[in-house]
C-alpha cells in the first residue's frame, strides 16, 4: 500500500473509532502529515486533557502517551510502537529519587515530563521545556531538586539564579550535537540564526541566539524577520519548520540528530494501532492519582503564573 493509501485508511478508521491522533514534532514526516494535532509535550498534554475523542493515538515516546493516559483516564490511549521509550526518562528511578529527597527533605521536587509516572508520583510538580523557567521562578522554596535532565536544569538554574540540585540525566540525542557543529554551520550560513533546544549541552546553548522548546521554535521562526535558521534539535523539527515556512531555510547538521525511539512509529504502525487497538497505555492504579496531581499542578501553574 502507498503512503497515500495508508493515510486514507487511517482517516477512515479514525472516524470509526472516534479517535484523535496526537503527534510530536519529532515524528516522521508522513506521521506528522496525519496528525490532528502536532505539537510539543506541553501542547500535546493540554490536547489530551481537553479532547472529546474516545481514543487517543499518541505518536511520540512512552512518557508522552503515559501523560495523556493520566490526563484522560476515561479514554483509551494507544501508542503505535510499544518499545518507543525515552532513555532520559529511564535515567532516574523511584528509589534513587527517594534517596535524594531524604538528603534534602526541605527541597521542592520539580520533574521534567521526560520521566516515568512512578517518578512523577513522587514529585511536587512537573514541567516541560516550554514552561520550566516559569515554573521554577514561581516556586517559593530555598532549594529545588530538578530531575532528570542536568542540561535543562542547569540552564534554568542559570536563568533564574535559584539553588537547584540537579540529577545527572541527559538526552542521548541532544548531547551529540557538538559545539563545533554549530560553529561550522554558522561559518557556512553566516546570516542564519541559531535556535536550540534546552536539552543541548551548556556549550551549545551558549552559542545559540535562542533557546526554545519545539513549539517555541515554531512560533519564533514564524514571527521572525530572519530567513535562515540553524536548528539545534532532532531532525523531525526541520520538516515541520520547512513545511510551515516555505520561504525560509533551515539547516540541520551532519550527522543529523535523530531520536531512534521517536522514529519507531511508522505510518504502517499508526494504521495497525487503529485497526487492532494496540498498544494500550495504562498506569498503575497505586501511583495514578499522585502522578496526575504533579501534571495537573504544572498545567495550572502554566495557566496562572
Ligand atoms: P518538547 O517538549 O520541546 O517538544 O521536547 C520534548 C523532547 O523530548 C525533546 O527531546
Ligand atoms: Fe528522549 Fe531525547 Fe528522544 Fe526527546 S529526543 S524523546 S529527550 S531521547
What is the CATH C-level name of the largest domain? Alpha Beta
What small ligands are held by the chains?
1,3-dihydroxyacetonephosphate, iron/sulfur cluster
CATH H-level name of the largest domain... which superfamily? NadA-like
Largest sheet: 4 strands, parallel
Helix content: 40-55%
The number of domains: 3
Unreliable sequence segments: none
Order of helices and strands: HEHEHEHEHEHEHEHEHEHEHEHEHH
Radius of gyration: 19 Å
Strand content: 15-25%
Identify the overall geometry.
globular
Distance between the termini: 49 Å
| Largest beta sheet: strand ordering | 2-1-3-4
Q: Supply the number of helical segments.
A: 14
Arithmetic mean of pLDDT? 97
CATH topology call of the largest domain: Rossmann fold
Count of beta strands: 12
Question: Could you list some keywords that capture this structure?
Answer:
305 residues, alpha/beta, Rossmann fold, four-stranded parallel sheet, 45% helix, 15% strand, globular, binds 1,3-dihydroxyacetonephosphate, binds iron/sulfur cluster
Give an overview of the whole structure.
This protein is an alpha/beta fold and 305 residues long. It folds into 3 domains: 3-84 and 262-276, 3-Layer(aba) Sandwich (Rossmann fold), CATH 3.40.50.10800; 89-171 and 285-304, Rossmann fold, CATH 3.40.50; 174-251, NadA-like (Rossmann fold). The protein has 14 helices and 12 strands. The protein has a 4-stranded parallel sheet, with helices on both faces. A 4-stranded parallel sheet has the order 6-5-7-8, with helices on both faces. It has a 4-stranded parallel sheet with strand order 10-9-11-12, with helices on both faces. The chain starts with a helix and ends with a helix. The model has no long low-confidence stretch (mean pLDDT 97). It binds 1,3-dihydroxyacetonephosphate (13P) and iron/sulfur cluster. Iron/sulfur cluster binds next to loops.
